[in-house]
Sequence to fold (251 residues):
Amino acid sequence: MPTWVGVASSIRVRSLLIDGIVAGRLDTIWAGLFCVAWAPGHIRGAQLLGASLFFALTFFRSLRTWRCLGLPSREGSTVSDSPQHRIFAMLDVDGDGVITHAEYLSRVDRVASAVGRDASHPVVAASRAAHDAVFQDMDADHEGRVTFEEYRSWVGHEAFERFCRTALGSLFDIADTDADGCLDRAEFICLRTAAGNADTDVSAAFDALDIDGDGLIDRDEYLAGIRDFVTTGSSPMAAAYGSGPLLRSSS
Fold:
């Protein structure tokens, strides 16, 4: 049989194996292996060589694909890197899979405490009221807790403009202790770490947001950064939420 027939056969088998690995489909993988097992002896060598090399290469490359697509990585769990998962994980303080009213409003208290604002301060009181309004709107079934499914179906441009802009702006106002409409690096880090982000990630986000390099982030820049991350996933603020994949239980 001509050499090109063996090569073509090898490419077909290789394609089956690659498609099966990337899609996580065992039936497609087995189909490729079946073709190898039943191939005539004079073309099996070409199939095995091409298939085995690409099988190994694609296996390692597929690990990144599983993370990006949120495909099953092990029984009972999924890997996701979406903005919604990142924000939900930050708000779900105890990691039990739901955001309670107390958890959601606790971020106001943490930010206020971090900058030395009293709970009775008008800015803090306004922030609590704004966050309460957000939670009531998120909690679609009014059970006093928000699941990831509820959050995912709620979050977006409309929700941000209707409620989140006010709530997030109020946290900025708490951290802006001199009321100049801007946060310097120390104030920004204080705000974001109190809200639940890691120090190193927050510092990277500040650098990305500070486009003109003046060492200050104004209120509009800050809110636009969060809005873009929430609605499109592309924003300088993305750095604040980390870069590694999040492993969430599917239960």
